[in-house]
Amino acid sequence: MPGGAGRPGSSVPGYSCQNSGATLFHGRRPYAGDGKSAFLPGSSLGRGVLPAVLRALHDAAGPDVWKQAGGLPETYFTAWGSLLEGLKLCEEDTLLVRGGTCSLGYAAIRLAKAMGCRVIATTHKESKLPLLKEADRAVLDTGRLAGSFSGVTKALELVGPGTLRDTLRCVKKNGIVCCTGILGGVYTLNDFDPIKEIPGGVYLTGFFSNYPDQRTMKDIFSFIGSHQMQPDIGALYRFDNISEALSDMDHHKVDGKIVVTV
């Protein structure tokens, strides 16, 4: 959200914001609004957060339109970390993005394509297959993908633990699976036997986005700028309509990032 989302002590739902000219507060110290990203560590979709404890991070976005910049920080940081830190993605890779029709999925597809990778992306709704047009191949996810394609070297699991076992069987030997999302609503693996259920020579990791740093954010904005990439803004709401925004998010009415402006 751009601008001063609220005075210190007020609750605002969300986990990242952009500041175009107002003041961000960290403890008792104000930060002048000179184009900064801010993350709200530990917050979640339905919980309030306090601007007084924002972690302010400089970025290299420049004087871009703030409704666009609002769709970048947390989403692209998570995608970037998952692809580069988790998956060690390189140009020769074929990447599977399981759960591609979400803001994180779109960002991962776009970043991977810009890096020169081949991308296979999935969705569980046939009506959303056209939304995966930037991927090299769009696949309908019926719950079982293993054996549907070959040559996948890296996989980004965004559906979560519910499909993780199957995703592990989708990558070739020496491949890596990074579990970053929980779109499927399953949060843990029950009765998971890593010896039997992780194929030999396949590696499993994850990425947690609560610890951004200034250098990484600058690298991300520089990469986005050099490739002329635009965030996927699914819907834009005024702050007065934040209840509608949260309702639309909870009911999966928006494809892409929800941005609230003040």
What is this structure's SSE topology?
Elements: E1 12-13, E2 16-19, E3 24-26, E4 29-31, E5 36-39, E6 48-49, E7 55-58, H1 66-69, H2 73-86, E8 94-98, H3 103-114, E9 118-123, E10 137-140, E11 154-157, H4 161-168, E12 176-179, H5 194-197, E13 203-206, H6 214-226, E14 233-238, H7 242-250, E15 257-261
Parallel strand pairs: 8-9, 8-11, 9-10, 11-12, 12-13, 14-15
Antiparallel strand pairs: 1-6, 2-5, 3-4, 5-7
Helix pairs in contact: 2-3
GO molecular function: NADPH binding; oxidoreductase activity, acting on NAD(P)H
Domain Alcohol dehydrogenase-like C-terminal: 104-219
Protein name: Zinc-binding dehydrogenase
Oligomer: single chain
Structure classification: alpha/beta
Q: Strand content of the residues, in percent?
A: 15-25%
CATH topology group of the largest domain: Rossmann fold
Number of discrete helical segments = 7
CATH class of the largest domain: Alpha Beta
Level-2 CATH architecture of the largest domain: 3-Layer(aba) Sandwich
Outline type = globular
| Number of DSSP strand runs | 15
Major beta sheet, strand line-up:
10-9-8-11-12-13
> Separation of termini?
7 Å
Mean pLDDT: 79
Helix content: 10-25%
CATH superfamily of the largest domain: NAD(P)-binding Rossmann-like Domain
Spatial extent as radius of gyration: 19 Å
Order of helices and strands: EEEEEEEHHEHEEEHEHEHEHE
Low-confidence stretches: 1-11, 21-36, 42-65
How many domains make up the coordinates? 2
What's the story with the biggest beta sheet? 6 strands, parallel
Organism: Candidatus Scatomonas pullistercoris
Pfam family, one: ADH_zinc_N
Domain Alcohol dehydrogenase-like C-terminal: 104-219
Protein name: Zinc-binding dehydrogenase
